[in-house]
Amino acid sequence: MDRANTRKLMSSYFLYESGRAMYFVLITWFLYQWTDDALYTGMFVSFGFIPGLFSNVIFGVVVDRSNRKKLAVLAGVISTICLVLLTGAVWGGVEHPWLMITAHMIMQTAGSLFRPSLQALVAEVFPKDSLPRIFSWSGSSTVAGSLTGAAVGGVLAGLVAVENSLSVVVLLYLGATATTQMIRYTPVERKNRSDSSSFWDEMKEGFVYVHQNRMLYGLFVMLMLGQLTFHTTLGFLSVYTSSHLKQSALVYGMLDSTFSVGGILAGLIGTWWWAKCQNRIGVWSLMMTASGLAIVSFTSLVPLAFLGFLFIGMGTSFVRALLQSVQQMATDSRFHGRMSSLRMLCNQTSVVVAGPIFGVLASSHGAPAVFLCMLIPVTGGIIWAHIQSKQPIFKQITKPA
C-alpha cells in the first residue's frame, strides 16, 4: 500500500470535511439566529440536495468515463469559488436566507461530484483487499476533520463575525483541493467499454447492473438511512441546541464535535467491528443509531444529549463507512462511479423529501420530534438489515479475511 498516497488521501478527506463542517456550523447557526424559524433550516438542508437529484446519475457516468482525480480537483475549485462569492456577499451586507440556500445548493452539487470521484479514485489506486481498511481510515479522517471544523466553527460563531470565519473555510477547501491534486495516479484504461457506447447507453447500463445485482438495493437502503440520519442530525442540531436545550453556540459546536468523536471512534475500531459483527454489521450499526436517536428525543439534560449524539455519530459512521466498503467490494470496478452516484441519488432524495417535513415538524413540535420521527425508518432499516444478513453473498463479503 502506497503510504504517500494514503497520507495525501487522508489529508484531502480531513481538510475537505473540516471546511464542510465549519461552513455548516457557521451558516446553520447564523441562519437560525437571524430568521428564528426552523422551517428555513429544513429548506436549507433539503434544497441543498435538489440539484443532486438530476446531477448524480450524470456524474456517475462522467466519473466512470473520465480522469477521477481531475474531477475531484474540479469539484474542489467550484466549492472554493462559491465560498469566495458567498463571503464577499456577507462582507457587502447583501446576505439573505435564499442566497445562503442557493450557495448551499451549489456546494452540495460540487460535493456530489467530489465524493464519488474520490471514492472511485480510492478503488482504482488501492488494491481491493485494502479497501475496508482504507475506507475505515478515510472515515476516521473525515470525522476527525468534522470534529475539528465543528469545534472551531462553534467557537468562531460565538466570537467572530461570520464573514471572517468563512475566510478560514475558504482556506480549508483550497487545502483539500491541493492535496487531492498531489495524489499520484495513473488512470486505468477502460478495456471493457465499447468505443461506440454512448453516454446514455452507459447510464442505462448502471441501472441494469443494479437490477442484476439486487443485493445493492438493500445496501442502498441501509446507506440511505445512515446518510439521512447524519444530515438530519447536522441540520437540526443548531435548532435543538438553541430552542430545546437553551444553550449557546459554544455548546452547539461541542455537541457537533461529540457527534464527530463518535465517528472517529467508529473509524478507529471499524476493523474490529467488522470482524465482530460480520454479516450482522448493518443490524448492530443501525441499532446503535436508534439508541442515540431515542436518547436525544426524550431528554432535555445536556450530558445525556452528548451521549445520544455520540451514539448517533458512531452508528451512522459504521453504516456509512463499512457498508460502503461492502458495496464497493460487491461492485465491478467498471461501475464504481455509477454505483456511488446512484447511492448518493438515493441518499439525497431522502433528504430532499424529509427536510421540509422535518422543518415544519420542528417549528410546530420542537426539534426532539424530528429525532423521534427518525426512529421509525431506522427501526425499519434494522429489520431490513436482518433480512439481508442472511444472504449468502453478503455473508461471503463480510466474512473476516
From TrEMBL:
Location in the cell reads: Cell membrane
Keywords of this entry: Cell membrane, Membrane, Transmembrane, Transmembrane helix
Q: How is this protein annotated for GO cellular component?
A: plasma membrane
Q: Name one Pfam family in it.
A: MFS_1
Regions crossing the membrane: 12-32, 38-59, 71-91, 216-237, 249-274, 281-298, 304-323, 344-363, 369-387
**Molecular function, one GO term:** transmembrane transporter activity
Looking up InterPro entries in the UniProt record yields: MFS, MFS_trans_sf
Membrane topology per the record?
A: Multi-pass membrane protein
Grouped into one coarse class, the protein's main location is membrane
Q: Looking at the record's lineage, which domain of life comes first?
A: Bacteria
Q: What is this protein called?
A: MFS transporter
Natural source organism = Halobacillus trueperi
- Recite the lineage of the species: Bacteria, Bacillati, Bacillota, Bacilli, Bacillales
